[in-house]
Amino acid sequence: MMTEASEYPALWLKDVSRGYAQGETRLEILIEAEMALWPGQSVALVAPSGAGKSTLLHIAGLLEKPDTGDVYLAGASTAGMNDAARTAARRTEIGFVYQFHHLLAEFTALENVQLPQMIAGLARREAADRAAQLLDYLGLGHRHAHRPAELSGGEQQRVAIARAVANGPRVLLADEPTGNLDPRTAHQVFSGLTDLVRASNLAALIATHNMDIAARMDRRVTLRDGKVVELP
Ligand code: ADP
What we know:
Layout: E1 11-22, E2 25-37, E3 42-45, H1 53-60, E4 68-73, E5 76-77, H2 83-93, E6 94-97, H3 109-119, H4 124-137, H5 153-165, E7 171-175, H6 183-199, E8 203-207, H7 211-216, E9 219-224, E10 227-231
Parallel strand pairs: 3-8, 3-9, 6-7, 7-8
Antiparallel strand pairs: 1-2, 1-4, 4-5, 9-10
Helix pairs in contact: 3-4, 3-5, 5-6
């Protein structure tokens, strides 16, 4: 069931718990964690390595199921969905950006952004038009025909961002998207990302170690004792 995006958080983690068996014991990573992410908002997830950032992002992105608790997308529960429905929700509602761009080497920047739209059923021409718009918006108007190897690290990540939002997801999840960029390039990539989040009313949760960048985002959260905690 689709609901008005403005009435509900784009993403709501409710009482999410997740642990891993470790030999005889269990390692509890998330313990009834709760977090709401609203449309148009960029939230930084800042926590030390091993705290559970990837676990949280995987659960938020419907890549993993929590042991208990539920993930709501625009007010709709996902706990009861079968695998096909989860996959469909993940494809249409969620975009991912990783630390490494994972662009297809043999395709141009434009084609990399065009492809997921064509897989989702859009005509080649319409997909190309939207891909061009997104690349232009992210300052890559002069790079449409370049292959990933012909782009700088920052340009590659901007293409990866364009690809992640190509199908108009509600939620953008990113795991250290600027982890291998120099500070100035990282800042440029983040500016493009946060502008896009606001302009398209997306909700973004972005794991980062970069405190300068986290400080510029709308909210900052961390993981403490298995819970999501707001930072000032
Ligand atoms: P972060 O992304 O913050 O570095 P992770 O979510 O990757 O943290 O991991 C949190 C903790 O859970 C770590 O201690 C890690 O070793 C453990 N962990 C993650 N995935 C598994 C798994 N599949 N099996 C066992 N332990 C895991």
